[in-house]
Amino acid sequence: MTRTVYVNGDYLPEGEAKVSIFDRGFLMADGVYEVTSVLDGKLIDFDGHVKRLWRSLAELEMTCPVGEADLLAMHRELVARNGIEQGMIYLQVTRGNPGDRSFLFPAADLPGTIVAFTQDIPNMADAPAAKTGLKVITIPDLRWSRVDIKTVQLLYPSMGKMAAKKAGVDDSWFTDEAGAVTEGTSNNAWIVKGNRIITRALGNDILHGITRAAVLRFAREAQFEVEERAFTPEEAHGADEAFSTAASLFVMPVVEVDGKPVGTGKPGPVATRLREIYLDEMRKAAI
Ligand code: PDD
After folding, report:
1. Class of domain 4-120 as given by CATH
2. Is 135 a catalytic residue?
3. At how many degrees (to 10) do helices 46-59 and 68-82 cross?
4. CATH number of the domain located at residue range(s) 129-285 in this protein
5. Which of 91, 104, 139, 215 has a 20 to 30 A CA-CA distance from 18?
6. Per-domain residue ranges for the chain?
7. Distance between CA 251 and CA 187 in Å, rounded?
């Protein structure tokens, strides 16, 4: 089935969707994005994703060509037209097409470009990786210092995924100059020690994950102690468990860091339970 995608107000077959070569998203990576997961044909934490989109746009003095209610309607339309039961919706907003290349921002009234498309992942909730866990390596975090803004500048995260692939593992976790883990290439990083769940505090050096926020809430409700602080790869080696969170992963156990097993080297009970709680609760709240 040909995918139907959304471009600036139109629903089109993917092969007919076009954006200008002068678009600042293409020339300058001057754009932001969101990825919202879909379960049972419904959107997971849409409200959280829209709030973060508004924040990313505001940080870059951009506006969204489409309001919140229309964004929701458009997401639902894409789910319906493409028959998505499980998967993701990718949404991107750029500063638009000024008609030429210039480093300066165009006038604020230039309409931005907005595109969205679906990714069909029929077994997303039952991903086999959730049973085996991910292996990660750590690499220096060489991204710019405003990664709290969800921009489309994903070259270094792509290089991080390639470094992992070349090393025969699943992902890379980034480390800062002090040697502490910031986050994964496209996810937030966590460790578990006894009843304590540890993940880096919010700042400009990590993306403020929507899944992270929900998991923190569920962890507190389940009586875990939560510590929002940095941890090192060495601390991960001595932890009972580790996991990554993202709209694309939900809660995903991490069983090896830099070739050393975490805990038993198998997905642990805490990550497994948090994944179950996350999926149950988010399914109930899906819209
Ligand atoms: N990535 N950190 C980074 C660098 C990310 O790119 C992402 C999401 C996250 C997790 O955020 P959330 O829980 O809101 O998905 C953390 C998306 C899924 C992606 O780029 O595909």
Report:
1. alpha beta
2. no
3. 130
4. 3.20.10.10
5. 104
6. 4-120, 129-285
7. 10
